[in-house]
Amino acid sequence: MDENLSKWLKGEISNEELKERIGSEEALKYIQIVGEVDNWVPDHTEHLFDPKEITSKPKAKVTTMRPWLSYAAAAVILIAVVSYLWLIMGDSTVSYSTVAGEVQEVELPDGSKATLAPNSEISWDKNTWKEVLAEKASLKSKKSAKRQIKLKGKVLLAVKKGSPFSVESVNGVVEVLGTVFEVDDFESGFNVRCFEGKVRATAVDQSSVIVAGGEGYLFFEGKWEDKIELDETSPDWLQNQTKFGNAPLTQVIKTLEKLYGITVEKGSVNTSRRFTGRIPNDKLDVALRTVFSPFKINYAQEGKKVILSEGN
Amino acid sequence: MKDSLCEEHVFHKEYISHELKVRNFLFYKLGDLEKARDFTQEAFIRLWNNCAKVALNKAKGFLFTTANRLFLDHYDHKKVVLKFEHRSNRSENQMEQNPEFLYEEEEFKQRLETAVSDLPEKQRVVFLMSRIDKYKNREIAEIMDISIKTVEKHISSAVKTLKDNLDEIDNLKI
């Protein structure tokens, strides 16, 4: 009976044959049900919308979209633009940089995400990454190809599983053993904060530390300092403020310069003192006061320049 | 790739051939025409944004997969209530030939709509794609990523459930 019904539904046997095989009464019921549904449509719309709305202005929000849909579309467009940029760059080095006050999200060729803090730059070699992706596709477990990016400044990374991933900067290398972490590279050292998973950070002198989720380490003036327990789950600069815990003034000053696009003349001020606190990312006067007044450091602002001097 | 989805006329052609079928697929799942339309539009926006990465013969798959993902991401466990309209080219005497369920035509339609709405989701979607959108079982199998045998099984189970359901109402009436 199942067999017959199935055959009839596929059009392999006729209504008459179905009646013969399963009885006229049952067959007529099936014929009536299917005959009715065959004549249904959800509505009589011919076209839902004009596709030109999409093709003529790919970045525009379409008016009927719900708010969450526009976010999703924006994210997709961002990724599409980034991949396009990646495709058209002829040179084998790909780089992205941000200006003062700008935060940019970049998708790496393997789908990992890098979020650049203000005034930072990352770059990578396209050819090396091609090998990485090819190796991944061929399922070879050699892992000879490494995912590498170079950093100037600060970046947050959400790394996809795969071959070794590392971030190189002037002061050292950070290799991923896990997922979400941030590297802040400044003149006299670098700071690593790991939000998820684990990373290994190796300084220029080859000394290394393993940084687990919720931990931070500072390499400053040639040595690793004690572990810092993080109480935040994502970088403060994504929330429009920057937090420092026992950070050298050089690191804080560098951050100020990048955030606000200023240059700071340190003069004879001792910048190895430590600062703990939060500064806003969009109010320079508040930020300067917050950082320098506790140390009794005088500061004078002249356009894009800030001149420091020791107070009394 | 000769015909790229990034060319407007190619994209528009794909749009014309799939818009209603994607919308209907979502409607069978959601029971909400307006939401189905919004999700369909979003699926086409995503197709356009990814036009360079999606081969022309994969456009249909991309659309249905995206539609399904949108449905899963925003599924709100509401009971589905489906309403349909009759095709305009329907022949007048069709019902009179098959008077097995002895209701007024409109009543029969309503009872059947309720019974269809109450079908398990997979059965409902596959059955309606087959009967309303006239998809071949092979096409449904591809779209839903199930075997052709499973498609056949869903369709005949759906029809049997509908008949049993209407039989029951019929018996209660007498």
UniProtKB/TrEMBL annotation, chain A:
Matching entries from Pfam families are given as: FecR (PF04773), FecR_C (PF16344)
Q: Name one GO molecular function term.
A: sigma factor antagonist activity
Q: Which residues form the FecR protein domain?
A: 96-200
This protein's record includes keyword Cytoplasm: no
Which parts pass through the membrane? 68-89
By its UniProt entry, which Gene3D superfamilies does this protein fall under? 2.60.120.1440, 3.55.50.30
The Protein FecR C-terminal domain extends over 243-308
Q: Which InterPro entries match?
A: FecR, FecR_C, Ferrdict_sens_TM
Q: Which keywords accompany this UniProt record?
A: Membrane, Transmembrane, Transmembrane helix
Q: Mind telling me what this protein is named? A: FecR family protein
Organism (species): Ekhidna lutea
Automatic annotation (TrEMBL), chain B:
Q: What SUPFAM superfamilies does its record include?
A: Sigma2 domain of RNA polymerase sigma factors, Sigma3 and sigma4 domains of RNA polymerase sigma factors
Q: Tell me which Gene Ontology terms the entry assigns under biological process.
A: DNA-templated transcription initiation
Enumerate the UniProt keywords alphabetically: Sigma factor, Transcription, Transcription regulation
Q: Where is the RNA polymerase sigma-70 region domain?
A: 17-77
Q: Which GO terms describe its molecular function?
A: DNA binding; sigma factor activity
Q: Where is the RNA polymerase sigma factor 70 region 4 type domain?
A: 110-162
**Taxonomy, superkingdom:** Bacteria
Which Pfam families did the record assign?
Sigma70_r2 (PF04542), Sigma70_r4_2 (PF08281)
Q: Which family does it belong to?
A: Belongs to the sigma-70 factor family. ECF subfamily.
What is the protein name given in its UniProt record? RNA polymerase sigma-70 factor, ECF subfamily
